[in-house]
Design a protein that fits this description.
Blueprint (H helix, E strand, L loop, with lengths): L2 H30 L7 H12 L1 H15 L3 H10 L1 H4 L1 H17 L5 H15 L5 H22 L6 H17 L9 H15 L4 H15 L7 H11 L2 H7 L6 H19 L80 H4 L1
Helix pairs in contact: 2-3, 2-9, 3-8, 4-11, 6-7, 8-9, 8-10, 12-14
Length: 353
């Protein structure tokens, strides 16, 4: 290879990297001008579906898997019969309701329907406040922790505050008590809770196996043995023991984490994802409320399907999602929100960025 060609390759790499940095910096500056509370939905949708779609998706899947290592939670899932009978549909049900709440104000038209449907489903079981609060901490902390470990950059303070405030307000309307007032306090609660409650039980293993098979369904069958071992190796010792999974070699654990870190390194060499390419499975609609055209019986189409066999191929109605008594809704619980609906500005996330 001639020196001239080497020089041109170096110049191209430098210019490409500089262009990526400039473009990402420009996007970051536009986001920084948004208010972390009033515009929290625009900030969160960008973080979760534009900047870190792969990491956020995996983090929540792994986070939900983590909750199954709590015997009081796994027993409820097992006894309900819904999870063992059709784990892939339960995944769809959970994702739809969570994302509808994630992208719409909890007191808005659409967000309220999703919240009341979730409250009705939960009301059929005896769930203690400590378990509710632990699951809430998973939804807040897991994406942020994964971004910190595997993302191309750290999450920003506005992103952290937006994430915390959205889930804080969801927790209030779900009737969860004693929600910590800061992310740091919530993280301390999560750690203390896991030390005490993350222990082995047979239902942990049963639900974990159903979930593992579901996650492996997107992997070619001939890779299942190594993929399963890498999944075991990826787990921390506390989680692995609570699930009853065997310990794997340290080199395999390092390899599992390195593969995810490589994703972050690769993204650093890419320009920011165009907003038109956002990975949105659940249509966002309007981040605050639907207005006069809102129809609670509207059929919404998932933008793509995941985890065969597919569900809701003909669309879904928010108030009918879930296995129990479609159309039945609970009541939103009273309490002070960090950001009432009246103070949340009704901007469309894609137009603000």
């Amino acid at each position: 290879m001639s020196l001239f060609l080497i020089f041109n390759v170096i110049i191209f790499i430098v210019v490409w990297k500089l262009a990526c940095v400039i473009l990402r910096r420009g996007r970051a500056l536009r986001i920084a001008r948004l208010h972390s509370l009033r515009h929290r939905y625009a900030i969160l949708i960008h973080m979760s579906f534009v900047d870190f779609p792969f990491i956020c998706k995996l983090s929540l899947e792994f986070g939900l898997f983590r909750t199954y290592s709590i015997p009081s939670i796994s027993r409820i899932l097992f006894k309900s019969g819904n999870f063992p009978a059709n784990s892939s549909k339960r995944y769809d049900d959970t994702e739809i309701l969570v994302k509808e709440l994630f992208m719409h104000h909890v007191d808005g038209d659409r967000g309220s329907i999703a919240l009341r449907r979730l409250n009705f489903i939960h009301s059929q079981f005896k769930i203690n406040n400590a378990d509710y609060l632990y699951v809430l901490s998973i939804f807040v902390l897991e994406p942020l922790e994964w971004i910190s470990r595997y993302g191309y950059r750290e999450s920003t303070e506005p992103e952290k505050l937006a994430m915390f405030s959205v889930w804080h307000d969801i927790g209030v309307r779900m009737g969860i008590h004693e929600i910590p007032s800061t992310i740091e306090e919530l993280a301390a609660y999560k750690e203390a809770y896991e030390r005490e409650h993350m222990i082995y039980s047979a239902t942990n293993k049963e639900i974990a196996e159903l979930t593992m098979n579901l996650l492996l369904s997107e992997v070619p069958t001939f890779l299942w043995p190594i993929a399963r071992k890498m999944a075991y190796a990826f787990m921390d010792d506390r989680l692995r023991k609570a699930m009853g999974y065997p310990k794997q070699p340290e080199w395999l654990s390092s390899l599992s984490h390195t593969i995810l870190r490589l994703h972050g390194y690769a993204v650093r060499w890419m320009p920011p994802r165009p907003l038109s390419r956002a990975v949105l499975r659940i249509p966002p609609g309007c981040p605050v409320q639907q207005g006069a055209c809102f129809d609670p019986c509207e059929i919404r189409q998932l933008l793509y399907q995941a985890y065969k066999p597919h569900h809701y191929e003909d669309g879904y109605r928010v108030h009918a999602v879930g296995a129990m008594k479609p159309g039945c809704l609970g009541d939103p619980c009273p309490g002070d929100l960090l950001l009432p609906l009246s103070e949340c500005e009704n901007i469309l996330w894609d137009r603000s960025l």
